[in-house]
């Protein structure tokens, strides 16, 4: 078997495995946990297995997460310790996602968020490999998140036309102009292999303003957007109080929402990490047709 045939065989095996493991129901990925600051071995194992097979896990905690310190303690038990900071985070580097008057950042408004991965504008020193969100208070109406495993969308695009995947690997597939107060100009491929973990990374946003796409990527981009509109592999779920999500920075979106005047505002804790949940040397040693 020559090298091209071997790569094709690996591709087919990976596709079959990925589709066999796919889950499109949040409850099938829900892990019931008793005490978030003292996970049992089984609870931890179930979360890690969900993230390894579907890049995504949900949890439902019987005991409340009372503050961001407890939320960070939950992350630490899952091996997540390299937190990415941001100006909106608290002393524990946890962001409080709630509506803020006159905020310039859409997550802190009640507006819808289109498809994106977190930190698509970050440089290589701050790649976001994992993020967690915990619901303290849901919105009265709306605020539904939809998730899509980035490996699945890669697979679907590859099946449609391998050249589209190659086009979106261009190192300057998209460029985010400089932010005067926080960051310089950033360019990034949509798809690439993480040199640290040997796993697929996706950087993507559907934002229409302040983004420049490389001319060679436009056809592939249009097909990617069409797949995002039509795929059946999404998971939509509104987190209830005490529930959370942990993922390997999969694609996600959020519907618009409304808070009630006589109820507390929607509040979620969010933590973003440079390290990948469930990553170990065995994962890195696996061959990947994506390389």
Give the helix/strand layout:
Layout: H1 3-21, E1 30-33, H2 41-54, E2 56-61, H3 68-77, E3 95-97, E4 113-116, E5 130-137, E6 141-142, E7 145-148, H4 150-160, H5 162-167, E8 174-176, E9 186-188, E10 191-193, E11 200-202, E12 212-213, H6 218-230, E13 235-237, E14 243-247, E15 251-254, E16 257-258, E17 267-273, H7 281-285
Report the sheet-strand fraction. 15-25%
How many helix segments?
Answer: 7
Mean pLDDT: 90
Strand order of the largest sheet: 1-2-14-5-17-3
Radius of gyration: 19 Å
**Global outline:** globular
Strands, count: 17
Order of helices and strands: HEHEHEEEEEHHEEEEEHEEEEEH
Low-confidence stretches: none
- Note the gap between the termini: 19 Å
What is the makeup of the main sheet? 6 strands, mixed
Structural class: alpha+beta
Helix percentage range? 25-40%
């Amino acid at each position: 078997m020559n090298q091209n045939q071997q790569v094709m065989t690996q591709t087919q095996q990976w596709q079959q495995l990925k589709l066999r493991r796919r889950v499109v129901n949040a409850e099938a990925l829900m892990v019931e946990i008793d005490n978030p600051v003292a996970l049992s071995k089984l609870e931890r194992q179930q979360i890690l297995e969900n993230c390894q097979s579907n890049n995504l896990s949900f949890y439902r905690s019987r005991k409340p997460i009372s503050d961001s310190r407890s939320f960070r303690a939950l992350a630490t038990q899952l091996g997540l310790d390299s937190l990415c900071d941001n100006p909106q985070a608290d002393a524990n580097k946890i962001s409080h996602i709630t509506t803020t008057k006159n905020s310039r950042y859409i997550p802190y408004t009640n507006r819808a968020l289109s498809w994106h991965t977190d930190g698509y504008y970050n440089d290589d020193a701050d790649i976001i490999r994992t993020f967690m969100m915990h619901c303290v208070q849901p919105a009265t109406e709306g605020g539904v998140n939809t998730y899509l495993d980035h490996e699945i969308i890669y697979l679907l695009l590859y099946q449609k036309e391998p050249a589209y995947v190659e086009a979106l690997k261009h190192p300057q597939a998209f460029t985010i102009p400089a932010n005067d107060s926080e960051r310089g100009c950033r360019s990034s491929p949509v798809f690439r292999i993480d040199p640290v973990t040997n796993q697929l990374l996706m950087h993507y946003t559907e934002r229409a303003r302040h983004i420049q796409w490389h001319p060679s990527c436009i056809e592939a981009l249009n097909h990617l957007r069409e797949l995002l509109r039509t795929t059946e592999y999404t998971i939509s779920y509104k987190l209830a109080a005490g529930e959370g999500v942990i993922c390997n920075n999969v694609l996600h979106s959020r519907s618009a929402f409304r808070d009630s005047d006589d109820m507390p505002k929607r509040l979620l804790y969010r933590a973003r990490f440079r390290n990948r949940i469930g990553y170990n040397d065995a994962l890195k040693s696996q061959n990947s047709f994506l390389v």
